[in-house]
Write a structure and sequence with these properties.
Layout (H helix, E strand, L loop, with lengths): L7 H11 L7 E3 L21 E3 L7 H4 L10 E3 L7 H5 L9 E3 L7 H10 L4 E3 L19
Parallel strand pairs: 1-2, 2-3, 3-4, 4-5
């Protein structure tokens, strides 16, 4: 299910019934105005393997709602307000393989702590991408 770019009204109407679709495996809520409290509607999605929450206003409070998503393998939190406290909420997601944390409020210490709890998870913080340096523009020589 892909709700990227949908209005808050559409999202609000869809999330309640969506939480009852037990066979749902991939949910894209990226770029929406989803609220932390709205994630409670996802508790029944026990077969969900991929969840996109990038560029949403989700915080640590919302991640508490994800504890029951035991089959979650991929979680994208890029551009959210998640901190190290939110990462602590993910420690029970034993099947998690990929976690994206670019432009969040997490720290190296918080990531290391989660990595201890979930050693098989690949955590991408964006730090692995070196800043691309632009070649210096050639200065015109004065004649």
């Amino acid at each position: 299910a892909n709700f990227r770019g949908q209005s808050a009204e559409v999202l609000a109407k869809a999330l309640g019934p969506l939480g009852k679709v037990i066979g749902l495996v991939d949910l894209n809520l990226g770029g929406t105005k989803i609220k932390d409290v709205d994630l409670a509607n996802l508790k029944g999605l026990i077969n969900l393997t991929r969840l996109h929450l990038e560029n949403t206003p989700i915080t640590d409070a919302g991640l508490v709602q994800l504890k029951g998503l035991v089959n979650l393998e991929d979680l994208n939190l890029y551009g959210t307000a998640v901190t190290d406290a939110g990462l602590d909420q993910l420690q029970g997601l034993a099947h998690l393989k990929n976690l994206y944390l670019w432009q969040t409020k997490t720290t190296e210490a918080g990531v290391a702590n989660l990595k201890k709890a979930l050693p098989k998870v690949a955590i991408s913080t964006g730090a692995e991408f070196k800043e691309i340096v632009k070649p210096e523009e050639k200065k015109e020589e004065k004649k």
